[in-house]
Amino acid sequence: MAEIIKSRKPVSINPLKSSTPLGAALGYLGIEGAVPLLHGSQGCTSFALVLLVRHYKEAIPLQTTAMDEVATILGAAGNMEEALLNLQRRMKPRFIGIASTALVETRGEDYAGDLKLILARQPELADTSVVFASTPDYIGALEDGWAAAVSAVIDGVVAPWSPAVTSFQQVNVLPGVNQTPADIEYLRDLIESFGLYPVILPDLSGSLDGHIAEDWCATTQGGARLEEVAQMARAVHTIAIGEHMRQPADLLCSLTGVPVTVFSTLTGLAPNDRLLSLLSHISGRAVPGRYRRQRSQLLDAMLDGHFHFGGKRIAIAADPDLLFSLSQFFTSMGAKIVAAVASTANSPNLAQIPTERVIIGDLTDMEDAVRAAGGADLLVTHSHGRQSARRLGIPLLRVGFPIFDRLGTAHMHTVGYCGTRDLIFRVANLFMGQMHEHKPDDFAPARPAPFNEEIVHDSASLAAH
């Protein structure tokens, strides 16, 4: 069991984590016709918007209540009401997801009560679903904000269970913030191959998958449909991915009575075996042949790749669930985790990470841990770790959020048999690319051995005897 160590530095020098409101905004972007609204100053929203645009290379409809000095002192209920009315008149969203920031939370406003009063006295908002998630910047990180947003949607949109509406073909899926649009698309295809109908919340595969729409739209295009989200009680089972999704899954279970299975990770052989076994049990169908072949391909990739993973020293800095997933993957391939840094301590899985210590800190803590461990062969973190990798003199595998110096991030996937297989090849090729290639100049030309009279004399003497 790993020892959890919290950094005592008074300031974060090279931050690892992204803010909680940013995670909530990202979750809201997985709903069709949505506009995320950050309740705070313009600066908070600008920071989140820049990271989202650079990561996805897409237009992001992120808005703000634009609190100023007066609203900070006297209260910002008026800013929230004005923002909601402006969004409804100008953008016509079907869904508005509000996330609080540290400015609002520190002041201690009754934002939930303010929202109820606003919705009661503004008939213009009657046809718009509006939810509010408490996401102060100083608590948690990206995973916590995502989970809070999903919980707010479940609490505000999902209808309670009724015995008259049950579908034995519907399966609810609550993906974690670490699943890319390609991951979610793969899960949809997988579930549909068993004859089941997936309802995914949030669904980034339709809204942030990088496509060119026929017409411009001010809100999100694609994503989870509110009509289907409202009927999640119809499902026969709910699948949640990541420990940070346990709370939303439990909330959905208590509201609808639908049983839940939480997968800590879907990267690796064993987790996907369990997933396919579950889907086969739910549907009553055998596992389709193409997934049996994908499993065989993964086994072959593991055999080919373990030569390059074995004995490698890995340093990982990520959000807790992503850190757990990657550490399990690398150790299963024969590598060793020599440094593990998490953005927050809000996950019980941190104690199960296969290393001696897990540091709750930033990328500077990660650098110090690598040097204390005697070096590493690979650094695994997001794009902000590129300077650390350069200083340490080791290659960087970009994972998580944000990745702004590479293209195709939304289309990279690590779940399922084929996603795990592709991840093995990515890492193995990275290791192979660091190998020294010998050139002719590296080898001294063959020369005859120098003449040694003593050796000749001794050889003649031995021959005479």
TrEMBL record:
Keyword Protein biosynthesis appears in the UniProt entry: no
UniProt cross-references to InterPro entries, sorted A to Z: ChlB/BchB/BchZ, Nase/OxRdtase_comp1, Nase_comp1_CS, Nase_Mo-Fe_CF
One GO term of the biological process aspect: protein-containing complex assembly
Record flagged with keyword Chaperone: no
Source organism, top-level taxon: Bacteria
Pathway: Cofactor biosynthesis; Fe-Mo cofactor biosynthesis
Domain Nitrogenase/oxidoreductase component: 20-431
Pfam families for this protein: Oxidored_nitro
Record PROSITE patterns: NITROGENASE_1_1
GO molecular function per UniProt: nitrogenase activity
SUPFAM superfamilies: Helical backbone' metal receptor
Keywords, sorted A to Z: Nitrogen fixation
CDD domains hit by this protein: Nitrogenase_NifN_1 (cd01966)
Similarity comment: Belongs to the NifD/NifK/NifE/NifN family.
Function of the molecule: This protein may play a role in the biosynthesis of the prosthetic group of nitrogenase (FeMo cofactor).
Protein name, entry field: Nitrogenase iron-molybdenum cofactor biosynthesis protein NifN
